[in-house]
Design brief:
globular; alpha/beta
Length: 251
């Protein structure tokens, strides 16, 4: 294919970094965005050394003026992968910190909104744009201790479904990928505020949770379907996980 441009948010680690690698391998020019400039610059250098086209752009998706400036600097965009997000805290609704809830809404919902709004004109002008929203199975069902994250990911899910309705007839697909249990270096550790024991317990006894690469493969597959094929919602879990709370643990 002729070189097409894909923007990946939250590309400094985990699913975002893995997705950037997969899209680069698929022939896309990849624009890596994240707050941690050193990490995305290192990834861009890695991809460039491997013969791919990649550029790093430090960006906080919750900063609308920065997002608008980033969008204005681009010469086009064909694919947007809204991956930036995160979970903070695991307290019940009764004692949850409103600051954590606000922070999760800011990045998981408003961050997606900011980048999508800013790049939508370019995606539409491409004549064949694709918007991917990385939500979560938390956006489809609730579980104890997940109130703020569940609420935020339900917001991301609703944003994706509403946007698809509103763009019907325009040359832009809206794809939602909702991962279940994915083991990455940072997600659980961030959620449990650096408590390595609690983070490890999430995956205890699960022989093969999903990896970032598993989700990246799923995103790349959805993005590279023929233009007339829209993968509205793809839920991907490890075989050991039947629902948010039904998980087979060995031993």
């Amino acid at each position: 294919m002729s070189t097409r441009t894909a923007v990946v948010t939250g590309a400094s680690s985990g699913i975002g970094a893995a997705t950037a690698r997969r899209l680069a391998e698929a022939g896309y020019r990849v624009l890596l965005t994240a707050r941690r400039a050193d990490r995305i610059e290192a990834l861009a250098a890695e991809l460039t050394a491997a013969g791919h086209r990649a550029d790093a752009h430090a960006l906080d998706v919750t900063d609308r003026s920065a997002v608008d400036a980033f969008a204005a600097s681009l010469d086009g965009c064909d694919v947007l992968v809204n991956n930036a997000g995160g979970a903070f805290g695991s307290e019940p609704v009764a004692t949850g910190d409103p600051a954590d809830w606000r922070a999760m809404y800011e990045v998981n919902v408003l961050g997606v909104l900011h980048v999508t709004q800013a790049l939508l004109p370019a995606l539409t002008a491409s004549g064949d744009g694709t918007i991917v929203v990385l939500s979560s199975t938390a956006g489809l069902d609730s579980y104890e201790g997940g109130g703020g994250y569940v609420a935020a990911k339900h917001g991301a899910h609703s944003l994706a479904t509403t946007l698809r309705l509103e763009l019907c007839g325009d040359p832009v697909r809206v794809v939602e990928v909702a991962p279940g249990m994915v083991r990455t270096d940072e997600f659980a550790l961030t959620r449990y505020r650096g408590d390595e024991k609690k983070a490890a317990a999430v995956y205890a006894g699960v022989a093969e949770p999903l990896t970032a690469e598993d989700v990246a493969d799923t995103v790349a597959w959805a993005v590279t379907r023929p233009s007339h094929v829209n993968i509205d919602l793809l839920v991907v879990r490890p075989r050991a996980q039947a629902s948010n709370r039904k998980v087979h643990r060995e031993g």
